[in-house]
Amino acid sequence: MTRNDNKVSAHSLYGTKALLLASGLIAAGIAAMILVAPNAFYQGYGIEISANVSLANELKAPAGALLMAGILMMVGAFKAGFTIPSLAIAAAVYLSYGLSRILSMAIDGAPHSGLVSAAAIEVVIGAVCFADLMRHKKTDISRRIAAQDSWQPGTDEGAA
Question: Where are the domains of the chain?
Fold first, then answer.
């Protein structure tokens, strides 16, 4: 393995930043719509919530968590130390939404076509984030191993 094999290329790093920024903007945008205008958002899927205050409240609670997750995804696009945690959050959020929708379809039947499309998009985004996370984790592990291999006798703490 050459020294360059242990580095994430600048090109792929920009791809990760774009992925995290897009994933975060989508999550935060959807969450903001649910928090501010839930009736308008859900009417597009044939769901009427304006007459049910309890349902609106129940839908807004996870929207707050989704908003925070979206913000954390975007932080990873700008702060290198947050890249891996942000990718993990993105993969977890998108895959959990998409796979939960698929489970619901298997149990309850097919919903509005827009929700079926949402499930497919969520699974794809989640899978791409997960794949990028695994690539970064592999690079991080390789970097740590290389650092251990470069230890020199006499450089240890307390050595004479």
Answer: 10-146
